[in-house]
Amino acid sequence: MSKYVLVGGPFEIMDTPHKVEIWGQVVEIPEDLARGAILSGAHLLPADQFAAQGFTADELKLTNARLQVSAAPEFHKKLDAAREAARAYRAELESNEVKS
Question: How much is the pTM?
Answer without folding.
Answer: 0.89
